[in-house]
Amino acid sequence: EAMAMERPVVATSAAAAALTARPGIDLEVADDAAAFAAKVLAVMDPAAGDRMGQRARARILADYAWASRFARLDELIARGETPRPAPTPASTSPGPEAAAVSAR
Q1: Residue 17, domain member (yes or no)
Q2: What 8-state DSSP symbol labels residue 93?
Q3: Angle, helices 33-43/46-64, rounded to nearest 10 degrees
Q4: What DSSP line would sit under 79-91, residue for residue?
Q5: Does the predicted model carry a pTM greater than 0.85?
Q6: Enclosing domain of residue 69
Q7: Is residue 4 one of the residues assigned to a domain?
Q8: Angle at Cα 48 formed by Cα 9 and Cα 12, nearest 5°?
Q9: Distance CA 49, CA 83 (A)
Q10: pLDDT (tens digit, 9 = 90+) per residue, 39-85?
């Protein structure tokens, strides 16, 4: 959300792994306290923070906005592909077979 609002972001590598954002371009990545603090100080520079925020918003719009998501869906449909349904979770309750066995 911060990236969509043109705000510079500093994240851990675990958090950034789920994004298409490019470290050092669209956001900063740091995993230890000293590096994280240094990255935060770097993006607090108004010019640097503004540039990163603008690139971050552009990345979010390109990869996550409704228009880009629908364009990807249109591509899948044009190729005859359909999204795979989510797997059905295994049942934790006994099925009808268990009731039949216990009734005997």
Answers
A1: yes
A2: S
A3: 100
A4: TT--PPPPPPPPP
A5: no
A6: 10-82
A7: no
A8: 25
A9: 38
A10: 999 999 999 999 999 999 999 999 988 888 888 888 888 888 766 77
